[in-house]
Amino acid sequence: MTKKPMYYDIYLKIKNMISNGEYAVGDFLPTENDLEKIYRVSRTTIRKVISLLSSDGYIEVKQGSGTRVANFNSTQRFNRVTSISETLRKNNNIVTTKSIFIDTIKPEKKIAEKLKIDVNDDIYRVQRVILANDIPVAIIKNYIHHKFTPKIDKKVNDIKSLYIFLESEYNLRIDSAKDLISAKNSDFIESELLNVDIGTSLMSIERTSFQKNIPITYDESIIRADKYKIEVHTKGR
């Protein structure tokens, strides 16, 4: 595991404070001078942190007025990689996890192909239900090769947002993703977990996420369509 540079460690700390609501939407971050004193680093380091937070959409930098936490809603924008829980938190929802469970399995052929591994390899399967303000919104399954996240099954209680956890615990930064989005009607188990009627319209997202073109996770998410929206930005032809 490579050592994280200082600016990236500070970036993760501030990003987590934004995701957890310690810095709410519209709040001003401390000034560059104050951040230098808080983290005992140079102005150059703090500017790298601010640049990364801005490029990832967490803050807005306005000359002469300061740096504010960006205004997000529960629409997931597909011009940057973000998770369902991160998107919900950015809309000031209280996000919790129910029934989180991690086990070790052998991948089905489809999953092995997505992760570019052998069907005899061991992978972790992370299963959970995401709630926003105590309302079940999504059922998520993540599949991750053992080599990337050793002993993650021992850290189950530390996972609030998987992407943030992978960044802070394993230095894995998801920088791209490929999503397949479709519609489905809820079956009996999905209806029970999401507290909806059988046959309710849901969104299904299959995602392969990457770090430097190396597949890190394959995810299957089932989401209540009445509680979540997806916005896709395109440009050119």
Q: In this structure, how is the largest beta sheet organized?
A: 6 strands, antiparallel
Low-confidence stretches: none
Tally of helical runs = 7
Strand content of the residues, in percent? 25-35%
Strand element count: 10
Which class of secondary structure composition applies to the elements? alpha+beta
- The residue fraction in helices comes out at 25-40%
Average pLDDT reading: 86
Computed Rg: 19 Å
Strand order of the largest sheet: 4-5-6-9-8-7
Report how far the terminal alpha carbons are from each other.
40 Å
Oligomer designation: single chain
Task: Report on this structure.
It is a single chain. This protein is an alpha+beta fold and 237 residues long. It has helices at residues 6-19, 32-39, 43-55, 84-89, 109-115, 162-170, 188-194, and strands spanning 59-62, 66-69, 75-77, 95-105, 123-132, 135-145, 176-185, 201-211, 214-224, 229-231. It has a six-stranded antiparallel β-sheet. α1 crosses α3 (43-55). The radius of gyration is 19 Å and the shape is globular. The N and C termini lie far apart (40 Å). The relative contact order is 0.14. The mean pLDDT is 86.
